[in-house]
Design brief:
Helix content is 21%, strand content 36%. By secondary structure, the protein is α+β, with helices and mostly antiparallel strands. This is tRNA pseudouridine synthase B.
């Protein structure tokens, strides 16, 4: 069984929990997720099955969309609602929509973020959350992330008991921490802040409308045809990458992993993956040869008959 099943991950489980359960439900070993979602976060989690596990990283590296609730007035150790409060400042007046939109515009585009201590980023071979649990503070690497768009739900702004909450929709690139974005919004507004709720609404081309729950998958598991009805082809997970069409003759060379001359109409830049298709089927992923000019080299061969 090869393809991608879009799971709506419920709160209370990790991405790895989903993989473990699907392995049991479908009785197959080759199952992989496409990007970690914290246990407290629900939403879209594409799961790759069989041959499609080869392309999981390309879904992981693609754009994501989130719906987040931001709380102004308190900050926490984890930058979300599950950490201990480390700072607070009572808010006594309403926040104008214009001021908030101005701040959101400042955080749109390429911005620098420092990952939270409670995150899976590795420093010296150890994940930051492991240091945090031991009470050890380490220097964290600042990195550039891409925020494509932030949209304010104007009707969501609420002042209650000295805390302002509001909801935003974010389209962003890989490696973005929405928790940290919430903190940055607070800093620009002059208040401690944290992310109080988060849902992933899109991953690559997969949206909530494409998803089923683990319980729904389990209901279908007794009938392989019923499972295949909800499987998306591997090509869906590669649709954000550039394409190049090849012939039956070239396909035979590609399946053998051959290094080939760069076609005159090749559009891929250095280190940019391009998917080679024969008709509608993705056969392999190639890029410009890193050391030999005029050649293209396989990154992954997806089909070997």
């Amino acid at each position: 069984m090869d393809g991608i099943v879009a799971i709506w991950k419920e709160t209370g489980m990790t991405s790895h929990d989903c993989v473990f359960k699907i392995r049991k439900i479908l009785r197959m070993k080759k199952v992989g997720h496409t990007g970690t979602l914290d246990p407290e976060v629900d939403g879209v989690l594409p799961i790759c099955l069989g041959r499609a596990t080869k392309i999981a990283e390309y879904i992981t590296d693609s754009g994501k969309s989130y719906r987040a609730q931001v709380s102004l007035g308190t900050s926490t150790t984890t930058e979300d609602a599950h950490g201990e409060i480390v700072d607070s400042k009572k808010i006594t007046h309403d926040l104008s929509k214009d001021k908030l939109k101005e701040v959101l515009n400042q955080l749109t585009g390429k911005i620098q973020q420092t990952p939270p201590m409670y995150s899976a980023v590795k420093v010296n071979g150890k994940r930051l959350y492991e240091y945090a649990r031991q009470g050890v503070e380490v220097e964290r690497p600042t990195r550039v992330v891409d925020i494509h768009k932030i949209t304010l739900d104007e009707d969501s702004i609420l002042l209650d008991n000295g805390v302002i909450t509001f909801t935003i929709d974010i389209d962003c690139g890989k490696g973005t921490y929405i928790r940290t974005l919430a903190v940055m919004i607070g800093e620009l507004l002059g208040y401690p802040a944290h992310m109080s709720k988060l849902t992933r609404t899109k991953s690559a081309l997969f949206t909530s409308g494409d998803c089923i729950t683990l319980a729904q998958l389990e209901e279908r598991a007794l009938n392989p045809d019923a499972v295949r009805e909800v499987l998306h082809p591997m090509e869906t997970g590669l649709s954000q990458l550039k394409k190049y069409l090849i012939s039956d003759t070239v396909e035979k060379r590609v399946k053998n992993g051959s290094v080939m001359p760069t076609p005159p109409d090749w559009s891929g830049k250095q280190n940019e993956p391009v998917v080679l298709y024969n008709r509608d089927r993705a056969v392999a992923i190639y890029h410009l040869h890193p050391s030999k000019e005029g050649l293209i080299k396989p990154i992954k061969v997806l089909w070997i008959d």
